[in-house]
């Protein structure tokens, strides 16, 4: 075969075109990462400047340039959730979970983010299922804490108890007081349904879990009083005074009523001495009112003494008492109802966690859902 001299011209040309194409590809490869990362850094800048709308747009553009980057999806989903766009956050995290190449840790992270989306949206059933799917992963402790909060919000105390126990066994802190509250809530529900023996058994279990917690002991005393068993009620209230004297103020009126219902004068005398001893340690108005139940003839004297000991408390009631006393009121029985009406708006309880105020004492704050955050004393006595 004859050699064609034309190849001497074609071969260098082909070689040159190949070299030029390789250089263009290399330059494009170097330029693409910079171009792809530019929207990402723009999104970070917008996020730092609290411009969430622009940050979302930038992250969406970055995801379009590099759809396989999991971190961009997490950033975008978290932004959607923070803005309340939970449906879009759910779609982002579900898209991550559908990827077959996602590592196990990133899959668990996406599952955890999805559960948070459902919780934020108020879809508690789906959130519960999503959190339960995290069992056996590194997110299990966080998932159990979220499940505990979910069960408390939905007042599912039977489910909350085992979760709190598992967290305690895992070394996440003491949940004994919470578990006692859950059992007390179940006991109240059982009693409302006429299942008194079961309710009492639940209270006994609560006392075993948290012996120093006052709620179960107080409930047992109040229930015994309601059933007419004044002796049993006195025993429960005195046990409360021994184990948790600060919380005894909440049951002082019930204790005085139980002493009044008991036969003979001995229970009244004993209750009076115990209340006087407690008042010498804690100048609480609840103790004064309980003593006034037992000794109504000394109401004016005792209230006057209390107002001298607590000059900054119940100023309106103090001024009213002084005016009526100077005017020569007929009897302390006429003064007491007026004092109670004057003191009522002042005797409020305040949550130590969020500042929520209420006229009644709550074991769980209606505002922030914290347990035992209400001090047993009203605001004016703190």
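Sequence proposed for the structure above (382 residues):
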């Amino acid at each position: 075969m004859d050699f064609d001299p034309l190849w001497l011209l074609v071969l260098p040309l082909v070689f040159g075109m190949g070299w030029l194409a390789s250089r263009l590809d290399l330059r494009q490869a170097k330029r693409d990462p910079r171009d792809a990362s530019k929207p990402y850094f723009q999104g970070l800048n917008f996020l730092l400047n609290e411009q969430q709308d622009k940050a979302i747009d930038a992250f969406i553009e970055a995801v379009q340039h590099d759809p396989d980057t999991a971190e961009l999806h997490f950033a975008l989903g978290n932004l959607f959730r923070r803005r309340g766009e939970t449906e879009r956050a759910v779609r982002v995290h579900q898209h991550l979970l559908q990827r077959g190449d996602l590592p196990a840790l990133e899959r668990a992270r996406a599952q955890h983010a999805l559960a948070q989306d459902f919780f934020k949206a108020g879809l508690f059933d789906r959130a519960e299922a999503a959190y339960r799917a995290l069992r056996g992963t590194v997110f299990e402790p966080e998932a159990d804490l979220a499940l505990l909060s979910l069960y408390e919000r939905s007042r599912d105390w039977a489910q909350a108890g085992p979760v709190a126990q598992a967290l305690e066994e895992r070394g996440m802190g003491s949940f004994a007081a919470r578990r006692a509250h859950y059992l007390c809530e179940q006991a109240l529900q059982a009693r409302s349904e006429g299942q008194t023996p079961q309710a009492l058994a639940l209270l006994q279990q609560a006392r075993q879990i948290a012996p120093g917690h006052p709620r179960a002991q107080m409930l047992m005393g109040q229930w015994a009083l309601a059933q007419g068993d004044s002796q049993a009620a006195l025993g429960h209230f005195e046990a409360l005074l021994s184990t948790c004297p600060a919380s005894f103020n909440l049951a002082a009126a019930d204790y005085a009523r139980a002493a009044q219902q008991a036969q003979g004068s001995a229970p009244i005398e004993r209750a009076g001495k115990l209340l006087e001893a407690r008042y010498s340690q804690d100048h609480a108005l609840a103790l004064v009112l309980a003593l006034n139940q037992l000794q109504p003839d000394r109401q004016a004297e005792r209230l006057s003494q209390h107002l001298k000991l607590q000059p900054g408390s119940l100023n309106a009631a103090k001024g009213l008492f002084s005016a009526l006393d100077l005017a020569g009121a007929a009897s302390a029985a006429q003064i007491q109802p007026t004092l109670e009406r004057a003191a009522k708006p002042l005797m409020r309880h305040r949550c130590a966690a969020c500042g929520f105020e209420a006229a009644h004492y709550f074991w769980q704050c209606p505002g922030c859902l914290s347990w035992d955050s209400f001090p047993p004393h009203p605001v004016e006595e703190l």
